[in-house]
Amino acid sequence: MNLFNHFAAVGFSNTYLLAAEDSGDAILIDPGKMDVQLLELIEDNDYYIRDILITHSHCNHYGGIRTLLKLYDAKVHSAHTELDGIPGYRLEEGNTRICGLEIEVISVLGHTDDSLVFKVGDFYFTGDVISAGRTGTTPDEINRRVLFLELEQKIFSRDEHGILLPGHGPPSTIMAEKALFHLNEKVPG
Amino acid sequence: MFDPELCAWPGCSRVPLNGERLCSEHSHSDWQKEIETYLTDNDEIQNIMGPGLKFRGLDLRNKHFVNCFFHHTSWEDCIFDGSRFQMVFFDDSVFQNCRMEKVDMINCVFAQSLLQDTSLRGSELVSVNWNRIRCQSCDFSESDLYYSRFIGASLKDSNFVDCNLKRVDFCLSGLKRVNMKYSNTEEAYFQTEKRE
């Protein structure tokens, strides 16, 4: 698998481009902003975007799809059949195959009620549910407890060498996040 | 791209060496020497896995590291000046008396590592995960640490003079004799607070 990271200064968000080995077709995860640098990343590496995966319906994670769909004939996958008026494909929890890659879709509630984590190999594209040293913001204390429980059961129970690639901030590992999580139940936001 | 499956040795939870089925402890091949030679002989270092290895006295100036996995490694008296790092994992590692001056680093991970007598002076250290590092007598001065995180870190006798600390997160960290003179500390986070 080939993996590239794009950091958009607007929204401070990460977009990930991934493709199967020897494939010219690629997936974009959370294109919150379409900018020249992201276009160069795609084109300079000779990729065509076939699929767009959205971790959750916050606009800083999908804001770039309208522009992308003018350039590429891509399918949009999220927890919904429609996103901001754009028809898409609804993802259910479990395993699926997209653009030649085996992807496990993991629903992690708490930050939003539609948050998905995408596991590809040992990489977890976590959106906003967890980033380095921080858990996602939650609307209230009940959802905060829900998020913690979901993270414990669905992410921290996995192999500790799993690599977390969040929607914001630097990457991390499950091992590092578990240690911090239990230090102080993480810093919110 | 690296794919950190576990060591094939029964019961071992370490990550195997590059291209191997076994980790550094259980592998009987001379991976230490091979990886060292590869690192010193090549300027473009991509998709290398060297978890658990111990390096000493390497000259790794002006290298370009991309997508490498050096989890639980040890680096002593190594020089990385002028090197570039993109998505390189040095988590749970030890850096002693190393020099990483004028390096360009983005989206790297040093979480849970020990850094001692190490200089990163004059570097671009953007969006780097330093969470829970133990850092003693280190110099980050004149560096751009934009959007990096030091959550739960222990920083002692270290310098962050004239640094860009915009959106740098020091929440839950212990700072003792840390000099942040001329740095924009007002744009860093030191309290536990909610943010977007």
Compact summary:
Chain A is α/β, with parallel strands linked by helices.
Question: Which features would summarize this protein structure in a list?
Answer:
heterodimer; A: 189 residues; alpha/beta; Metallo-beta-lactamase, Chain A; 6-stranded mixed β-sheet; 37% strand; globular; B: 196 residues; mainly beta; 7-stranded parallel β-sheet; 1 helix; 12 strands
Spans of chain B of at least 5 consecutive residues whose pLDDT stays below 50 are none
Regarding quaternary structure, what we see is heterodimer
Looking at the structure, what is the overall shape of chain A?
globular
- Number of spatially distinct domains of chain A: 1
Radius of gyration of chain A: 16 Å
Our estimate of the beta-strand percent of chain B is: 15-25%
What's the mean pLDDT score of chain B? 90
Shape of chain B: globular
Task: Walk me through what this model shows.
The complex is a heterodimer of chains A (189) and B (196). By secondary structure, chain A is α/β, with parallel strands linked by helices. Chain A has a single domain (2-184), classed as Metallo-beta-lactamase, Chain A. Chain A contains five helices and 17 strands. Chain A has a six-stranded mixed beta sheet with strand order 1-2-3-4-5-8, covered by helices on one side. In chain A, 49% of the residues are buried. The mean pLDDT of chain A is 93. Chain B contains one helix and twelve strands, in the order αββββββββββββ. The two termini of chain B are 31 Å apart. In chain B, 6% of the residues lie in helices and 18% in strands. The longest helix of chain B is centred in the first third of the chain and has 11 residues, at 31-41. With 196 residues, chain B is mainly β. Chain B has one helix at 31-41, and strands at residues 44-46, 54-56, 64-66, 74-76, 84-86, 94-96, 104-106, 114-116, 124-126, 134-136, 154-156, 174-176. In chain B, the strands form two sheets. Chain B has a seven-stranded parallel beta sheet, with no helix packed on it. The interface between A and B is large, with 32 and 40 residues.
